[in-house]
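sorry for the late reply, my laptop died twice this morning and i had to redo everyting from scratch. anyway the thing you sent over, i finally got around to it. pasting the sequence first so we're on the same page, its 88 residues, then the predicted structure underneath. double check i copied it right bc i was rushing
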Amino acid sequence: MDHEFWKEIHDRGGIPAVRSALAELPEDLPPREAEAAAEMALKVIEEDIARLHARADAAEARARDLAEQTREVHRRLTENATRDSDEA
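ok and here's the structure:
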């Protein structure tokens, strides 16, 4: 059960699939093998969490950019409305 084994399980069903596969490990699996399997599974889960955090960080940065753009558009509209009312 190497990293690729756990990665394939994860690719098929995400973290719940990895957790289920861990729960289904044979009870008579030698402790060293069970520990190695758990470590590989944990590494795959940690990679997924890191990927999710990176996506969340990117989305947050995009939201800040959009908020700034919205403020700028609002400022310009207010400026134009004020100028138009002064000219009328």
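Residues 31-87 form the longest helix (57 residues).
thats about all i looked at so far, will dig more tmrw
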